[in-house]
Amino acid sequence: MRVIKRDGSREDVIFDKITRRLRMLSWGLDTSRVDYGRIVREVCVGMSDDMRTADIDSLAASVCVNHQLEAVEYEVLGTRLLISNHHRQTSSSVLETYAALADVLDPAFLAFVETHADELQTLIDYDRDYDFQYFGASTILRLYCAKKDGVPVERPAHVYLRTACVVSKYDMSLVPIVYDILSKKQAVFGSPTLFNSGMKIQQIASCFLMEMSDSIDGIFESFHEMARVSKVGGGIGVFVGDVRSRGAPITSTNGKTDGLLPMVRCVNSIAQYVNQSSKRKGAVAVYLGIDHPDVVDLLDIRRPGGDENLRARDIFLALMVSDLFVSRLDAGGTWSFFDPYECPGLSNAVGDAYVALYERYEREGKAKRTMPAKQLWDAVVRAQIESGVPYILYKDAINAKSNQQNLGTIKTSNLCAEIVQYTSNEETAVCNLGSVCLPAFVDPEADGGYDFDRLMAVVRTMTRCLNNVIDINHYPVEKARRSNMRHRPIGLGIQGLADVFVAVGLPFDSEKAVALGTKISAAMYYASIDESASLAAERGPYETYHGSPMSRGKMQFDLWGVEPHPDFAWDVLREKVAIHGVRTSLNIAIMPTASTAQICSNIEAAEPITSLVYVRRTLAGEHVCVYRPLVDALTRRGLWTVDVRNEIIRANGSIQSLQSIPDDLKQLFVTAWDMKQRWIVDHAAARGPYVCQTQSMNIFMAKPTTSLVSKMHKYGHKAGLKTGVYYLRTKAAVTGAQMSTRSGATTVNQAPAPSEDDSEEDSVCLNCSG
User: Are 180 and 267 within one domain?
Assistant: First the structure.
C-alpha cells in the first residue's frame, strides 16, 4: 500500500511513522493509558491505497476520538492530530496568510497587517490552537477558518487575531488584550463577528429585529430586507402582528385577505433560499400578539405531519403575551381576538393603556373571535409539546423593565428570544453579540473560588469592543444603521455557567448555585455599565439617552424593584452615570451560544448539563462524547470502568439511577432532565435584575403534559421573567441508536441515546449567531 505525501510524491506505507507521529503529539499525557498499537491497527483498516497523508491524519484523529470514553488522553490526542494536520497545510506567517486571502479581505485590514506585521507575528501564539477539545477544533476549522478554493488558509489563531484587530478598531494598544481574551477562551464574539471581521463585507452584527407594515408594499419591502440581512449572515426576528388577519377587507380591491399563514410561508421560502453567507441556513422568527386572530392558524406551522400547505417548518413562531391574557387565564375568563386593521393600536399599547383599549374594543363588539382563554392556552401548550414552539415572551414585563422604554413600545425579539429592542417602520434594531466564558475565571486561590476582578476586567474590554462593532459594521439596510447608531445596544452574554458550578462543587439545583450565578450576573452588569459610562465620558452618551430610565437614575434592578447585590459599589456607579451618562442603551443579554460554546468546550449559556454521555454525528461518522469533568471525578475514585460507562449510556446520559455512583456525585452532575424545572426559572429570575435585555431560557421536560407546562409558565410569569420560554425541550419516546463499549471497542445497539447532529447544524442557535 502506498501513500501520497504532502509534496505530491508517493511512498510505501511505513506504519512505524504513524506510531512515531502519535507519540510525538503525546506530550504531557499519561501514555500508559494509550494503546498506540490498536490506534495504528484501526487506522490501517480504514486506509486505502494512494491515500494522502493529510487524510491519514484525519482518519487517525477520528479513530482516537472513538476511544475517548476509555481515557481522556485519546480525545486530546485526536485533537492534536487535527490541529497539527491543519498547521502542516497552512502558513505560520501572519503576512503570508492574510496575503493569500487578499481578494476577500478589507483593504484597511490588509494595510494594518502590513504596517504591524512584525508586532502581530510576535503576538500570535499557535500553541494555543492545541487548547481546543476535539469538536471545538473541528467546528472552528470547518466553519470559521477562511479557505480559498476549498483549501485551508487560516489557523484558529488567525481567526482570533483578525477579529481582535477589527473589534479593537486597529488600536495596537488594545489588539493584544483582545487577542489574549479570545485565544485563551475567556470570552468570544458572536459567529458573524468571527466569520466576517476584516472581510470586504464586514457584517459582524448578529441579530436584526424588524416590523412588517400592513400593506402590500410594506410586506414585500420586509421580504427584501429579510433577504438582504440573511445574505450577510444575520438572524432575523420580525413582528407581523400589525398585518391584517384572514378574512379582513382589502379596500383597494374590495376583496378579503388570506391572513398571515400564506405570508409566513413566503418568509419560510426566503429563509430556505437566502442562506447565511453559504455557511448556515437562513432562519426567521415571526412575532405577533396573542390577541391576533390568526394565532390559532399559526400554531401548527412546525407540527409534524399534516398538510404541507399549512406548514412553514423553517419558521420559529413567537407570541407576545400580555398580563391581561394571563389574568383572564387565571380567572377562567374568555379571550377576544381583534383584527389590527379594524382595531388598531393594541400592538403599541402596554400595561393599563393596553387593558383600557382592549376592553373598549370588547365593549364595542369589535372582537373577530372569542374563546375561553384556557382553550387557547391549551392549544399553545400542545404546540410547544409537539414542536418546541411558540416561544413565549411577556410584553408588559419587557416594556416595563427596558431602558429603551422612552423610545416607544417594544413589540418583538430576535431569532432566539434574548434581544428586546425598539423597532418601527423607520428603524430595524440590530444587536452585536459576545459571551464571556465563565469557567475561565474559576480560581481555587480566589475568595469563594471565583476571580471576579478578572471577570470584570474582561467584561469591560468586551463592552468596549462590542461598542466598536456598532461603528465598523456593514449594515445591509439603512434602517438598521439608523437604529444602531442612535441607540447603540449591545448584547453580552455568558457560557459555561453549569461548568462553573461543577468546578466549585455546587449542584445546579441548589440555593448556593443560584447565589453564585446571581453574583456573577451582578458583576457583569456592574462592569459593563461602568465601561459604558467611561465610553460616554470619552465620546458622549448615545443619542437617545436623555429620557431613558438610566438617565433618570434607574438601573435594571430598580426596574425590577429589588435591592442590588451588596458586594458592589452601586452608589459610585450611579454617580458616574449621572455625570457622564452611558454610551450603550442595552448591555446584557443571555443568548444560546450553541456554536461558540462548542468551540470553547463549555456548556451552553446558563443552561444545565443536558447529558453526560451523548452521540455526536458528524460528516466523519458517529462519535460518543462524554462530559470530561465527570470522567475526571470518577477516575479519581477508581469508578470509570467499562460497566459504569455502559450503565450511563443505558440511562441516556444520566447517573441518577446508578447504584455504583456516590450520592455527592449524583447531586453535582445532575442533568437538565433530572432536576425540577423551577430551578432553571429560579436562576433566570435571580439574574434577571442584571439582564437589561432578556434571556433565551430553555425548559426540559421528558414527559410534558399541558398541566405541567402551564404550571411552569405560570411560575415564570409570576417570577417576573421577560422571556417565559425559548424552547420547550422534550424527549422522544425512542431515538435512533445507543452506544456502548465492550472490551474497549465502541459498538452501536438499538436503544435510546441522546444525540447532537453536527453535520446538519440543527440548532436554531447557530442561526442566531451566539
Answer: no
Cα distance from N-terminal residue to C-terminal residue, the chain: 46
Domain final residue pick, 24, 58, 89: 89
What's the rounded Cα separation, in Å, for the pair 62 and 706? Answer: 43
Show contacts of 12-18: CB within 8 Å, 24+ apart: 13/44, 13/47, 15/40, 15/44, 18/43, 18/56, 18/60
Determine the Cα angle at 317 with ends 420 and 395, to 5°: 40
Q: Are residues 131 and 234 in the same domain?
A: no
Do 8 and 132 sit in the same domain of this protein?
Answer: no
CA–CA gap between residue 414 and residue 716 (Å, rounded): 20
Task: Please state, in angstroms and rounded to a whole number, the distance separating the CA atoms of residues 455 and 492.
Answer: 13
Domain that holds residue 123: 90-184
What gap in Å lies between CA 35 and CA 41, rounded to an integer?
10
650 occurs within a structural domain:
no
The verdict on 79 and 126 lying in the same domain is no
CA distance 455 to 469: 21
Q: What is the DSSP string of 541-606?
A: --TT-TTSTGGGT--HHHHHT-PPPTTS-HHHHHHHHHHH--S-S--B-B---HHHHHHHT---TT
CA pair distance 596, 284, nearest whole angstrom: 20
List, by residue number, the catalytic residues.
414, 416, 418
CATH number reported for the structural domain that contains residue 218 in this entry: 3.20.70.20
Amino acid identity, position 683: H
How many domains is the chain built from?
Answer: 3
Residue 276 sits in the same domain as residue 299 = yes
Residues 386-444 pLDDT 10s = 999 999 999 999 999 999 999 999 999 999 999 999 999 999 999 999 999 999 999 99
**pTM summary value:** 0.94
586, HSE (Cβ side, Cα atoms, 13 Å): 34
149 and 243 together in one domain: no
The 10s digit of each residue's pLDDT in 10-30 is: 777 777 888 999 999 999 999
Q: Which of 229, 94, 234, 78 is nearest to 159 (CA)?
A: 94
Residue at 30: amino acid letter: D
**Does the CA dihedral 660-666-669-672 come out positive or negative?**
positive
Q: Beta strands 728-730 and 699-701: pairing type?
A: parallel
CA distances in angstroms from 324 to 76, 243, 354, 401, 510, listed in the order given: 55, 22, 8, 17, 33
CA distance 638 to 649: 18
User: What single string gives the DSSP state of each residue in 455-516?
Assistant: HHHHHHHHHHHHHHHHHHPPPSSHHHHHHHHHH--EEEEEE-HHHHHHHHT--SSSHHHHHH
pLDDT classification of 634: cutoffs 50, 70, 90? very high
Q: Comparing C-alpha atoms, which of 188, 295, 282, 292 is closest to residue 230?
A: 282
Residue 305: exposed, middle, or buried by beta-carbon count in 10 A (0-12, 13-18, 19+)? exposed
The answer to whether residue 41 is domain-embedded is yes
Q: Are residues 117 and 130 in the same domain?
A: yes
Measure the CA–CA gap between 411 and 419, rounded to whole angstroms: 11
- Closest to 369 measured CA to CA, from 254, 241, 246, 243: 246
User: Residue 255: beta bridge partners?
Assistant: 250
Say what the pLDDT of residue 37 is: 94
CA-to-CA distance for 413 and 433, rounded, in angstroms?
14
d(CA 584, CA 541): 7
Place of cell 463499549: 741
Q: Which of 87, 208, 63 is nearest to 155 (CA)?
A: 87
Q: Residue 311 and residue 298: Cα distance in Å, rounded?
A: 8
The residue among 34, 63, 89 that closes a domain is: 89
DSSP labels, 169-221: TT-TTTHHHHHHHHHTTSEEE-HHHHHHTTBSS-----EEEEE--SSHHHHHH
Q: State how far the Cα of 480 lies from the Cα of 469, in Å rounded to an integer.
A: 13
3-state secondary structure at position 333 = coil
80 with 95, same domain: the answer is: no
Could you give the C-alpha distances from 618 to 295, 345, 451, 677, in angstroms and in order? 37, 49, 36, 31
At 754, the pLDDT band (50, 70, 90 cuts) reads: very low
